[in-house]
Amino acid sequence: MQVFGLVGSPVEHSLSPPLHEAAYRELGIDARYVTFEPDPTDLAAAIEGARALGIRGLNVTIPFKRDVLDCCEPDELAARIGAVNTLDFGGERLTGHNTDAIGVKRAFAHHDVSLSGRAVVVGAGGAGRAAAFALADEGTTVAIANRTAERARELAAEIDGATGHGLAELDELLADADVLVNATSVGMDEDVSPVAPAALHGDLAVLDAVYSPIETRLLREAAATGATTIDGGWMLLYQGVAAFERWTGRTAPVERMNEALRERLASDDGGSD
Ligand code: NAP
């Protein structure tokens, strides 16, 4: 039996076990997906131990996505983003990858949104970094707006052609934007939006990284303007799909994984992945 898993804290409400185990069942793969919550001071030892035990792949979540860079060889994208959410133990060297960025790209692709023109990313934390690099790599001109404007400017300085702003500039940035990503935690467990409804318009494609609740106030208000809306479940799904495909070399049963995720999201209080 192969073992995959997730390291983070907290992980007890993670949606990754049902997401991945649905794929193992569908394809008849003899595998389990297990969650681990190591003490932060033991992260390196935990990763070494996982390798020694023959664990094939690990996802990594809060608060370890940056610290784990020191325990692996990040690929080029993960190194630029400065965060790893997927460890691959399959080769000679332990490699680190950022499938959150792939999740952003594939969530838009799934909804036939072509990534060109202007994108606004609200947030400059882990999800904001992954989204900003992903969108820039696809060819959009990225503006990052963050509560702490300095953090947005620092991130923008790392990305060709990107600009960094405070939230006060958000309405102006959105006026001629094609794509909007909410990569803040605003809207999580609370019916609030990081964007004034009047700034939304029908030419936008809006991805909310928040998936608990699955239908956020931002997405409701964006849908009311005729915008294309993409909930955080799609990003979560495709980061998992990308990790699964890397680890197993198999094409993921995306529909089955999505069904499992949606079932859990409908019955659950969500979690951190
Ligand atoms: P993070 O690194 O802690 O960053 C949090 C971001 O939210 C920062 O930009 C922070 O701004 C901003 N923020 C927090 N409270 C705010 C408020 N009250 N008003 C305005 N901005 C506020 O967290 P993260 O890992 O990027 O996660 C952000 C969200 O994305 C979470 O809801 C998480 O669940 C979600 N996420 C989803 C996926 C997915 O697959 N769907 C993947 C990763 C993350 P400051 O810099 O000013 O503090």
Automatic annotation (TrEMBL):
Binding site for NADP(+): E76, G123, A124, G125, G126, A127, N146, R147, T148, A149, E150, R151, A209, G232
Entry superkingdom: Archaea
EC number: 1.1.1.25
GO molecular function: NADP binding; shikimate 3-dehydrogenase (NADP+) activity
Enzyme class: oxidoreductase
Record carries keyword Oxidoreductase: yes
Quinate/shikimate 5-dehydrogenase/glutamyl-tRNA reductase domain location: 116-185
Keyword set includes Lyase: no
Domain SDH C-terminal: start-end pairs: 234-262
Keywords: Amino-acid biosynthesis, Aromatic amino acid biosynthesis, NADP, Oxidoreductase
Pathway(s) served: Metabolic intermediate biosynthesis; chorismate biosynthesis; chorismate from D-erythrose 4-phosphate and phosphoenolpyruvate: step 4/7
Domain Shikimate dehydrogenase substrate binding N-terminal: 6-87
List of residues binding shikimate: S14, L15, S16, T61, N85, D100, Y211, Q239
Catalyzed chemical reaction(s): shikimate + NADP(+) = 3-dehydroshikimate + NADPH + H(+)
InterPro entries according to UniProt: Aminoacid_DH-like_N_sf, NAD(P)-bd_dom_sf, SDH_C, Shikimate_DH, Shikimate_DH-bd_N, Shikimate_DH_fam, Shikm_DH/Glu-tRNA_Rdtase
GO BP, one annotated term: amino acid biosynthetic process
Active-site residue numbers: K65 (proton acceptor)
HAMAP family reported in the protein's UniProt record: Shikimate_DH_AroE
Membership in a protein family: Belongs to the shikimate dehydrogenase family.
Subunit structure: Homodimer.
Function statement: Involved in the biosynthesis of the chorismate, which leads to the biosynthesis of aromatic amino acids. Catalyzes the reversible NADPH linked reduction of 3-dehydroshikimate (DHSA) to yield shikimate (SA).
Full protein name: Shikimate dehydrogenase (NADP(+))
Provenance organism: Halococcus morrhuae DSM 1307
